Amino acid sequence: xxIIITGGAGFIGSNAASRYLKDGHDVVVVDNLSRRxxxxxxxxxRQQGSLExxxxxxxxxxxxxxxxxxxxDVDCILHLAGQVAVTVSVTSPRLDFEVNALGTFNxxxxxxxxxxxxxLIYSSTNKVYGELKxxxxxxxxxxxxxxxxxxxxxxxxxxxxxxxxxxxxxxADQYFVDYNRIYGIPTIVFRQSCIYGxxxxxxxxxxxxxxxxxxxxxxxxxxxxxxxxxxxxxxFIDDLLDAFDAALAAGNAAYGRVYNIGGGSDNIVxxxxxxxxxxxxxxxxxxxxxxxxxxxxxxxxxxxxxRAQAELGWTPKVRSxxxxxxxxxxxxxxxxxxx
Length: 339
Known about the structure:
This protein is α/β, with parallel strands linked by helices. The protein has 11 helices and 15 strands.
């Protein structure tokens, strides 16, 4: 197959590209290399197979359209490029809009105008559901939990875009859905929860699982926003790649559909629990400070993944305890990349 991956030198994109290259596929990586670690990821990929790199910013409509016309025979497109931090969206809302909303529109229009019939998967976010203040939250065993929603948030939950990031990603999410309805383009939307794993150059405002592991091993300051009892369902990168494969294998049944993709109720971790895990790994007490809650930071988010299980035959296989060990060890073995 030939696969185009926007954001292909990022965390998720480089892992996806590596899997497809190792399986003998042709991969076209589209990336502007603005993200920290992207250049290192690209060099790592160049050694692995038939790779074409296009240094394109998805805001550049003409460049992106030209690339798509050159690759009309593509078999699959993963749209993973984006502005990824809520904090950046608050300080730079125009940048956030242009990358996430307009960049996605540019891709969809480029696909439509090039006459491409290959399936497209979009990496959306749980932030499209907003703060979810209408869902009762309780404290249970030192962390927050939903009351009366044991499986978490389903795709039937009303959308409630919160922050510029929620608006831009939500707009892109809905454009993907509508381009299937109106133009018949085979689109699939993944509303992803917290993805973590190899080659994740986490930062304080995005990729928190990796960031805490990196910061603790380099002795950098750690700040906990809120009280640290907020929880997320975390999903290891290999499981997300399996979900991509499952959605593509499902074909027509998945087109136009939206799926919550996360660790689900079996893979829940609070901020405090992650810090305690790192302390056990390092056999020492970590020093960190607390600060105010950030805009749009949900106390709880847990993905109800039963639709993906029923329609795609997909469930997470890597338990959080195993995945955390895998990421921690990878960071330790590659600590020079983060200096």
